[in-house]
Amino acid sequence: MPGAELVDPVPYAGWWPWVAVAIVLAVVGWYVWVWRSTRGPAAASPPPVVPAVPGAPPAANARRDPYAALRGTTLARLDEVERRYAAGDVDVRGANLEIRWVLREFATARTGVDTSAMTAAAARADRRTRPLATLLENSSLPTFGASSRTRVARTLEQARRRVRTW
Q: What global pTM score does this model have?
């Protein structure tokens, strides 16, 4: 190679550093977007507004209670569960499952904590959902046991008392 001259390498174009900066910013932006979109609502957010069921009686203290409409809706749904059980549309297990679902939806709207799959132990551990724990424990055996002597009327009475006082 004695006759060949050495040639300097070809330099990169001036826009490549800007491409690198744009890629880094895009990745950082994507991480920030994922982080923010997967976080729950702030703890201080107002309770969700639940539309009242037509025919549901308003609570006696509707002016002072921000959850009066929610209580009326929940009590009306518990009345519907009782009606369906009395008509024979659902059995003891089905009625208890529906009661649990209505109570979980009430607790979620009341506290802002997702209680749709919460166990009684988890509900007891969180001070916001602690009133729900006893009801979940009491309705577990009739819901998941092979047989139960629990009366649906008693479970409904406990659920209504909890909804009125919580």
A: 0.57
